[in-house]
Amino acid sequence: MPELTPDDAFLTLYSDLAREGPGAAADLGWALSVAATPADARICDAGCGSGADTVTLAKERPKAQIDAIDQIAQFVAAAQKRTAPFGARVQVRQGDMAALSGPYDLIWCAGAVYFLGITEALRLWRDALAPGGAVAFSEPCLLARPSAAARAFWAEYPQITDVAGIRARVAAAGYRVLGEQMQIGAAWEAYYTPMSRRIASLRPGATGVLANALDEAEQEIARWKAAPSEIAYALMVVAPVDG
């Protein structure tokens, strides 16, 4: 049997997990409220993963038309299965979130905007927004006076800034902030607790690349546990200045 590739090991680890990053259903309700997203909105879940937030969006706005997009075929298939009960009003496809068409009343992007960069993504998505539309995204954020443990957690993301730095990147794209809140604690627990169970289920017999992937995931969880009150995403709701 051929050895797994790093990509194969990643997909094996994330298979059957409800989420691919921190988050909670209440975050979407807050963002939809701040953005004043209408009941019959057209919404895009950009970088939807396996569809956890797509499902919540569909429940929160039962009259909305929702497009969900991800580049990874396995995640797209999982999201399609999860959203099938909502019928044709939820469409999940494999694609590039840098090339959205719209027009959307809300573009939701949980933990994936860093692939493009905040300023770059907001500029790319400007023409995909309907008049009065907004973007909601989450981005790694340093809290005030971060400890060595918090800095160690984000060591592989050197472009991380505090919330003022995030606001500056939003402004550079020609957007204004409608609302912001920090995702700390529960949102991360909802991500790491199922991952810990998944690691334990895969550990027996794991070797090579898969064993390495499990080790790295365990180390990440351990780094989070060293400073759980300091590890945060900033959840931002923003809109074009001239929108």
From TrEMBL:
Cleaved signal peptide residues: none
Coiled-coil ranges per UniProt: none
Domain Methyltransferase: 43-133
Record bears the keyword Metal-binding: no
SUPFAM superfamilies referenced in this protein's UniProt entry, alphabetically: S-adenosyl-L-methionine-dependent methyltransferases
GO biological process assignments: methylation
Keyword Cell membrane recorded: no
Superkingdom per UniProt: Bacteria
One Pfam family, short name: Methyltransf_25
The entry's keywords: Methyltransferase, Transferase
Single GO term (MF): methyltransferase activity
Protein's name according to its UniProt entry: Class I SAM-dependent methyltransferase
Source organism of this protein record: Roseinatronobacter alkalisoli
